[in-house]
Automatic annotation (TrEMBL):
Lineage: Bacteria, Bacillati, Actinomycetota, Actinomycetes, Micrococcales
GO terms assigned for molecular function: oxidoreductase activity
Tagged with keyword Cell division: no
Protein name: LLM class flavin-dependent oxidoreductase
Family: Belongs to the NtaA/SnaA/DszA monooxygenase family.
PANTHER family xrefs: ALKANESULFONATE MONOOXYGENASE-RELATED (PTHR30011), C2H2 FINGER DOMAIN TRANSCRIPTION FACTOR (EUROFUNG)-RELATED (PTHR30011:SF16)
Record domain Luciferase-like: where: 28-392
Recorded coiled-coil stretches: none
Length: 457
């Protein structure tokens, strides 16, 4: 049965963006918000445990390897100037939570495969099988200048490197059979030498001998997450991803994206249900629709124009900071080598809705281009259910305007309604992140076998 049809749906996948400032740029200004620089580990842990108590599938740590671009005056208003390094934070969360999945962003552009494979294997052991790797290709141009480059590699080159990077990491995770370490004290045999596998990879971008000096991860390999929606990004996701994050603002485009991605997945030789499509959503909840709309207007008014225009310029790859706030987006926006899919989404939204730059930056940096759902708990639940039941998404990553109260409101008022409809779990039924997503644990060598089958197709 096609797992993209309504009658084959099971339950939503739900995750939480674990950052008070990565979604709504002015969320930190809300009186009840915790700001990034005011965040201490007990605050982070309390929110992660709240998500775990709610039986969410995962929490997600976004990342960029640079400060936002802009002059000191503009940057002084931008809360994303600071954030925890995600793998360090994930390590702390891995031993402080019990069941929830832990997804962290790591770039293939400014890392090496052995580092990433070793860190995620260690974290998967520390968490007893709850990690996911959100693979990105460093879309922010400023990152290049922190790593001895004046500019990024081209988009296509970054994805070519990313694919080889992932193949190497997967090969390293398969360095050992699951039962390789016999620990025979009597004979003095620590591991079975027949169950060690040397990678000996020699490719265009990497030469890596191996083996990895960490046991095979409890999940076989971390859940593979991918967020690119450009052509190169979708092709990479179709071949390798198990979870795909996307930004979609209307049902028609969401249906088209999911259908296209699952078609590509099938064409790559994988089952359609081997990938979960997760859309970002920002829910604004009120006792009435009017109350929710007032909350939304309050948040949008907190976005400072300097920050809004600077962030919009970054996402467009085009400077709009000197243009009239109440004028339209220029007719011609040069294609960027950084945020290709996000640039396309922003431009299409601006054209379709005839938005001024002021309206556009509020729309974009308020939810980072993701869908905003405004209403009562019942109407929010209705809208989330509608996309899910139509097969447009397999679930959502929640990005509240601020934390912790923004998530608490969703947890206490919307989640019970989704449960009443049978759309979300009441208890965990497994212990690993793969269990939550109903993904099988891959056998050693399975990734390489899939890759060979894909190449044959």
């Amino acid at each position: 049965m096609d797992n993209n049809t309504p009658d084959s749906r099971r339950q939503m996948v739900l995750g939480l963006l674990l950052s008070p400032a990565s979604s709504h740029i002015a969320g930190w200004r809300h009186p009840d918000a915790i700001s990034n620089a005011g965040w201490d580990f007990p605050d982070v842990l309390r929110i992660a445990r709240s998500a775990e108590d709610a039986k969410l599938d995962f929490v997600f740590l976004a990342d960029e390897l640079c400060a936002p671009e802009g002059d000191a005056e503009t940057l002084s208003r931008d809360p994303v100037i600071y954030r925890f390094e995600p793998l360090t934070l994930l390590a702390a969360l891995s031993v402080s939570t019990d069941r929830i999945g832990l997804v962290a962003t790591q770039t293939t552009t400014y890392n090496e495969p052995y580092h990433i494979a070793r860190k995620f294997a260690s974290l998967d052991h520390l968490s007893h099988g709850r990690t996911g790797w959100n693979l990105v290709t460093s879309y922010v141009e400023a990152e290049a200048r922190n790593f001895s480059r004046s500019e990024h590699l081209r988009n296509a080159d970054r994805y070519e490197r990313a694919e080889e990077f992932l193949r190497v990491a997967a090969g390293l995770w398969d360095s050992w059979d699951d039962d390789a370490f016999v620990l025979d004290k009597d004979s003095g045999r620590y591991f079975d030498p027949d169950k060690m596998h040397i990678l000996n990879h020699h490719g265009q971008h990497f030469s890596v001998r191996g083996p990895l000096n960490v046991l095979r991860p409890p999940q076989g390999r971390p859940v593979q997450v991918q967020a690119g929606s450009s052509e190169a990004g979708k092709n990479l996701a179709a071949r390798y991803a198990e979870v795909a994050f996307t930004a979609q603002n209307n049902l028609e485009s969401a249906l088209a994206f999911t259908r296209d991605l699952k078609d590509r997945t099938e064409k790559a030789g994988r089952p359609r249900d081997s990938i979960r499509v997760i859309a970002g959503v920002q829910a604004i909840i009120g006792d009435t629709v009017e109350d929710a709309q007032a909350k939304y207007r309050q948040m949008q008014e907190l976005i400072h124009p300097e920050v809004g225009l600077a962030r919009l310029s970054q996402l467009l790859g085009f400077d709009v900071t000197t243009l009239p706030l109440d004028g339209p987006l220029p007719d011609i926006i040069p294609e960027t080598e950084s945020y290709k899919s996000r640039q396309q989404l922003i431009v299409e939204t601006a054209r379709r809705e005839n938005l001024t730059l002021r309206e556009l930056y509020r729309r974009v940096v308020g939810a980072y281009g993701h869908r905003v759902v405004i209403g009562t708990p019942e109407s929010v639940a209705d809208e989330l259910a509608a996309w899910f039941e139509a097969g447009a998404v397999d679930g959502y990553i929640l990005s509240p305007t601020y934390l912790p109260a923004g998530f608490d409101e969703f947890r206490n008022r919307v989640l019970p309604l989704l449960r009443e409809r049978g759309l979300f779990r009441t208890e965990y039924t497994g212990s690993t992140f793969r269990d939550h997503l109903a993904l099988a644990r891959p056998a050693r060598g399975e990734f390489q076998a899939e890759e060979q089958a894909t190449a044959a197709v």
